[in-house]
Amino acid sequence: MSPQTILVTGAAGFIGFHLCERLLKQGHRVVGLDNINDYYNVDLKYGRLKELGIHRSDAEHFDTVVSGSIYGDLFHFVRLNLEDRKALPELFKSYQFDSVCNLAAQAGVRYSIENPEAYIDSNVSGFLNVLECCRHHKISRLVYASSSSVYGNSDAVPFEETAAVDHPISLYAATKKSNELMAHTYSHLYNIETIGLRFFTVYGPWGRPDMALFLFTEAILNNKPIKVFNEGKLSRDFTYIDDIVEGVENTLLKTSKEKELYKLYNIGNSQPVQLLDFIEAIEKSTGKTSKRIMMPMQAGDVNQTWANVEHLKTDYDYQPSTDLEVGVEAFVNWYKSFYS
Known about the structure:
The chain is α/β, with parallel strands linked by helices. Helices cover 40% and strands 17% of the residues. The protein is built from 12 helices and 14 strands. It has helices at 14-25, 42-51, 56-59, 87-95, 111-114, 116-136, 171-190, 212-221, 241-253, 275-286, 310-316, 324-338, and strands at 5-9, 29-34, 65-67, 75-79, 99-102, 141-147, 193-199, 202-203, 226-228, 235-236, 239-240, 262-267, 273-274, 292-294. Strands 3-4-2-1-5-6-7-12 form an 8-stranded mixed sheet, sandwiched between helices. It has a two-stranded parallel ribbon with strand order 8-11. Helix 8 (212-221) packs across helix 10 (275-286) and helix 8 (212-221) crosses helix 12 (324-338). It is globular, with a radius of gyration of 19 Å. The mean pLDDT is 94.
């Protein structure tokens, strides 16, 4: 496969960082974009960028494209707000991207209740800006992050892409559903191939501090109690980062067996895990027993997630293979090293 020039938004984020690294190691030219907001500790975001050869002193300035010290001219980074209607079109004009992967978004279900404006700015206005740039600069394929949260509290499991998703229970979920509708419109009107990926709980090294694995590991290692919501009566389709990134890469670079312009796929492990079993896996990897505070259900949260991934397997050869205990141990080892 000949090298491509690919825009990855959310490049300082968890999935975006890992995707950039994978694409660069395969010889593709990558432009990474991120606004490095302070939703969580920016030290972690700059730490990820450092792994890609971008130093913090260079990345702190907005609207300035910088080259990395590891991959040279193959990797450029720019700090930019996705909704910037002047700078983003200029970036598209400068690079003539072969494809775009939009992973940038204001994340977090619970935070969307506290700060709803941030979700509209980034997830709706920002995504519209990406779509407009793809339209005017003749981008043939856009892969973008949706979320398993669009399924709400559905009892019909495993979740199917054909299911009705008209009842989101958080603003975050509503913005992701709106992304899917907006992408459908642009595929229909402007002949752009759009692929929406409904991510199911992603975990692994360099993961987000607001996610359960990070919070639980941090607390257990520091002998602090963990909050177990809905008294542990939750299950999640935990999916290891390497499996996720391989699936994203395939949708970016491979030719699908499915010929439709507009596509939606679940991307998960298809093996839901009970929350209490997940905690036990962390305890095993840390060698410590947790102190648990049993809590009620959180507003905007869901009882279970479970992905049917057969369509992504068929169309893009997706094959998740990482065992939960292997993935959790990899995270715990990374956490101990990074926060040593």
